[in-house]
Design a protein that fits this description.
mainly beta, elongated, 6-stranded antiparallel beta sheet, single chain, binds zinc ion
Length: 138
């Protein structure tokens, strides 16, 4: 019998296929979101950065590929706690799916276990492997 590689309560990294986004820090305000000018010691003016509108930078989109799920507006991989395991059976296949506490157990996102990994290294290696293989569009 097939034993799932991930158990209930495990912390996992998820990978998905999508456009790569990169947060590019605003050069004008150095990512601060505000600019200030000193006319003299007593008079300091601050204003919202006119280039990034106070965001400190902007998201840029790249190619579509397999990548690690990261925390919004950072480059830090997101870690999820597995709260539900389920075996999805269709005529074509049997696949384990997981649901995570962070994204909802009863109603929330459902992920395939084949897209979940216990370490960043494994997740990255799988992304590299899949990005090298021509993906069949469904
Ligand atoms: Zn700026």
């Amino acid at each position: 019998m097939y034993t799932p590689k991930i158990k209930l309560g495990d912390k996992v990294y998820l990978i998905y296929r999508g456009k790569v986004s990169k947060f590019v820090v605003c050069q004008f305000c150095n990512g601060q979101g505000i600019i200030s000018s000193n006319f003299n010691i007593d008079h300091k003016l601050t204003a919202r950065c006119p280039i990034c509108h106070g965001e400190g930078g902007k998201k840029e989109w790249g190619d579509t590929q397999w990548q690690l799920d990261i925390i919004e507006n950072t480059n830090i991989p997101a870690l999820y706690k597995v709260g539900k395991l389920q075996l999805e059976t269709t005529k074509k296949y049997e696949k384990w799916t997981i649901m995570c506490e962070e994204t909802g157990i009863e109603s929330g996102s459902c992920y395939y276990m084949e897209d979940a990994f216990l370490t960043i290294e494994e997740a990255k290696a799988e992304c590299d492997k899949r990005n090298l293989t021509k993906v069949k569009e469904s």
